TrEMBL record:
Species for this entry: Roseiterribacter gracilis
Protein name per Swiss-Prot or TrEMBL: Dihydroorotate dehydrogenase
Pfam families, alphabetized: DUF952
Lineage: Bacteria, Pseudomonadati, Pseudomonadota, Alphaproteobacteria, Rhodospirillales
């Protein structure tokens, strides 16, 4: 299965690496789940929710490792988005990397699954 992606702020990600528990952003905690996107959705999600932010880390996860706490739910435009109703252990992450901003102010993404 293809990887799913989360946009983490670097300070929150570093806290998770130190503690072993990623709780997400204030928005994630308010909504009661960690927001994930597919490879097709994440660029739009970044533009909508992290526009112009310099401290954004792209976190890639194999959905199979997240178990039953991962649910696919309707969101923007009726599309199904993956939502994790649990905290996450950073060890569950397949890979992560910082997202630089391009000259146009949009995040520059690597090739995604």
């Amino acid at each position: 299965m293809a990887l799913i992606y989360h946009l983490a702020r670097e300070a929150e990600w570093q806290k998770a690496l130190a503690s072993g528990i990623y709780e997400g952003s204030a928005d994630d905690r308010r909504d009661g789940f960690l927001h994930f996107s597919t490879g097709e959705q994440v660029v739009i999600s970044a533009a909508k929710h992290r526009a112009g932010e310099r401290d954004v880390r792209l976190v890639a996860v194999d959905p199979a490792v997240l178990g039953d706490a991962l649910r696919w739910e309707e969101s923007r435009g009726g599309a199904l988005f993956p939502h994790l109703y649990a905290t996450m252990d950073p060890k569950q992450v397949a890979w992560s990397q910082m997202l630089p901003l391009g000259a146009d102010g949009a995040h520059v993404f690597p090739a995604l699954d």
